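Supplementary Methods. Inverse-folding protocol.

Structures were first reduced to a discrete structure-token string of length 485. This string, shown here, constituted the complete conditioning input.
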């Protein structure tokens, strides 16, 4: 009688290196059935950019498995139903998987494991996504951290780096199991194909390339240059690879720390990079412990904010037609490439929430649909951070001035000129505020405001004053301490 296979259930761990579920499956010495199940019923459906990424990442994973004598089995539908079907088809009696920690997924995994156990099937889950599982990092009172700095200290003191692994050289997989055709899932955009500007290489190989490009060269000036959107190489661009589990966060941290040990970068640069990975971890732990923040404010009083319903302004923001060049450059970069520089993300979020007084959930939903690195926990936490309603958030009265932010972080105008080319002939002194340019300067640049480039959809000071007035209705404070940097 043939040896029963074990099922290796891939989710957001689309890699062969440093994959604990794969390693434990291989230790059984039995054939392995690698499977990915597209089940969008139990959690929030993926955005369009995420679907594009998943299509390419699954192809890369299948190619990597084929190099090791295996292949990726694709199934679509209810995950439990599909696992039970595979068990019936193959006689498998063990399932290995890396856990998901978002609340719906975590509960769903527990229900699946309970049902399979009742059917006589073992289900083994591991942590392949985070440095520490939620629940392993708690404060002295046994409660989740709500402030980042002490959380990071506790995280780094608690986390233990696993040994790096490459996975088995050969993976024996049953040849008769049927698989869906990935093309039939239609994850890649149909006509029109809006992904032509996506300059990414999804998959484990692409993640490794991104890490090698960034460390040590980009990491050398990371702390100094990371806030400047036109400085190429100053950002790791690892976020989508980390989200899809194409690289372990430990691999990224170890490379950064080793570069510091070797004297290739300073320890300050390495520590800053590790702290940014720590923010990803903080967000994941927060969402796990406080599931309601996916839909509501972490600080409940902020759910009483008198948000405006303004479809025209929301559309202008989405399309990069607000009349503020830095905001518009960011929104156009997002639509074209599926990604936006982190500093600019904060500016465009602040503009939507505070200048336009539009609910942060509208912005979160747009980012969810258009970002290739859309991550439920990070997306929610980052939007609530700007809105002042999240854990350890920036205060609501900190209102980014999109003009001075552009002047400070895009001083040569390279970023704006790339993404808002209709303004490329304006001199630097008025590039971030075209409406202040003298008539002859606009004429020489070939610009008629309102025709070639929009006039501001809200005046900065009016938007700021409206936001602070709204804050007073929520908290009774309305502290007038707007950040003017």
């Amino acid at each position: 009688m043939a040896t029963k296979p074990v099922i290796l259930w891939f989710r957001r761990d689309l890699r062969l290196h440093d994959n604990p579920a794969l390693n434990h499956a291989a230790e059984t010495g039995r054939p392995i059935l690698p499977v990915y199940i597209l089940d969008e019923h139990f959690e929030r459906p993926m955005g369009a950019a995420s679907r594009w990424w998943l299509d390419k990442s699954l192809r890369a994973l299948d190619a990597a498995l084929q190099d090791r004598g295996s292949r990726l089995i694709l199934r679509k539908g209810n995950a439990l139903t599909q696992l039970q079907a595979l068990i019936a088809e193959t006689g498998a009696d063990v399932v290995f998987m890396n856990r998901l920690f978002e609340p719906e997924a975590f509960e769903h995994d527990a229900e699946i494991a309970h049902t399979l156990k009742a059917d006589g099937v073992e289900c083994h889950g591991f942590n392949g996504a985070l440095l520490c599982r939620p629940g392993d990092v708690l404060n002295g009172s046994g409660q989740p951290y709500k402030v980042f700095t002490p959380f990071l200290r506790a995280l780094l003191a608690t986390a233990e780096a696993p040994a790096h692994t490459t996975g088995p050289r050969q993976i024996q997989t049953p040849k008769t199991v049927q698989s869906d055709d990935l093309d039939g899932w239609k994850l890649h955009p149909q006509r029109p194909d809006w992904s032509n500007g996506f300059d990414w290489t999804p998959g484990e190989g692409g993640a490794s390339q991104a890490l090698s490009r960034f460390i040590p060269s980009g990491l050398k000036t990371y702390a100094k240059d990371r806030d400047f959107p036109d400085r190429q190489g100053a950002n790791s661009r690892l976020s989508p690879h980390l989200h899809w589990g194409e690289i372990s966060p430990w691999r990224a941290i170890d490379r950064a720390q080793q570069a510091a040990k070797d004297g290739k970068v300073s320890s300050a640069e390495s520590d800053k990079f590790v702290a940014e990975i720590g923010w990803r971890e903080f967000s994941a732990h927060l969402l796990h412990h406080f599931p309601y923040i996916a839909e509501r404010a972490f600080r409940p009083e902020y759910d009483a904010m008198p948000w405006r319903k303004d479809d025209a302004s929301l559309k202008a923001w989405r399309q990069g037609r607000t009349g503020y060049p830095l905001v518009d450059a960011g929104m156009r970069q997002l639509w074209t490439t599926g990604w936006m520089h982190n500093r600019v993300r904060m500016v465009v979020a602040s503009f939507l929430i505070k200048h336009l007084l539009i609910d942060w959930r509208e912005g979160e939903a747009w980012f969810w649909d258009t970002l290739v690195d859309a991550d439920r926990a990070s997306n929610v936490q980052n939007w609530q951070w700007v809105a002042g309603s999240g854990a350890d958030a920036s205060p609501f009265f900190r209102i980014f001035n999109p003009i001075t932010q552009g002047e400070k972080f895009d001083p040569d105008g390279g970023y704006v000129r790339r993404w808002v080319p209709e303004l490329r002939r304006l001199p630097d002194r008025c590039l971030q505020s075209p409406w202040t340019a003298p008539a002859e300067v606009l004429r020489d640049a070939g610009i008629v405001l309102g025709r070639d480039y929009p006039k501001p959809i809200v005046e900065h000071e009016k938007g700021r004053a409206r936001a602070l007035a709204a804050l007073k209705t929520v908290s009774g404070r309305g502290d007038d301490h707007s950040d003017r940097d």
